[in-house]
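Our platform keeps sequence and structure together, in a single record for each protein. Such a record has a labelled line for the sequence and another for the backbone structure tokens. The tokens are whole numbers drawn from a learned vocabulary of local backbone shapes. The remainder of this section carries one protein's record, kept here as part of the documentation:
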Amino acid sequence: MDSEATAQKARVRAQFDTAALEYDTGPGCFAYFGKRLVESAEILPDHRVLDVATGRGAAFFPAAELLSNAGEIVGIDLSDEMVRATNAEATRRGVPGRAQVMDAEHLVFKDATFDRVLCGFGIMFFPDQLHALGEFQRVLKPGGLLAVSTWRVAQISEILAAMDELGMKREQAPGWIAEPEKLSSLLIRAGFTDVSVRLESHSFKYVDVEEYWQQARGTGLRRTLDNLDPGDAERLLTALGRRVCSGEAKGFSSVSTALIGLGRR
């Protein structure tokens, strides 16, 4: 592994270790799209399912609900804190599946282990996306299905737009995939067949700007927001308020759009 890839993974791990406790606060964008990803995967009760970049279990728990005692759910994530929080929640819910710390580009599982591989909003963080997809394909059984999601319009889009308006620098995962054609091409290049990509949009209601800000701190943008000096943070909050709030109405809605891609081994 080259030094830049190693450094990128270290940054991602640190980002999500820090964000783990606040992850998916507010209206639950990840939870909503995680459930939609699972519904797309057509999981059967006896399936063995791998959830890559499991985070706080947005896809892990909906998938687990579909499985019988003959099935199995395994989650992996690069972040120790995400894994710890998800396993604590699994224990609380009485879910037998567990998550473990693992690099998506270097899966330890044997060939043809899983009927389904899920990856919700994770692939943009992988330094070598084709290699990771090759690993997903390797651990899938013949005919098995991969279901991945990326952001076309992220749940933090209003903050990103406000930062652009103010000329503030912001981080974005180098592997960001916002176009259906790009995701489809990537899956085909990785050797998947019957590839399809669809857009899924949903409107999320926020109580106020502060709730929107706090949910953004539960994403990969947290480090950027927390490193703002007080003056810039105040300017950004003001610009955000101008974008989303109108008149005397309480709260506001913001539409997020995901790409959901499917491909068979």
The domain at 3-155+174-205+256-264 is CATH 3.40.50.150 (Rossmann fold). The mean pLDDT is 93.
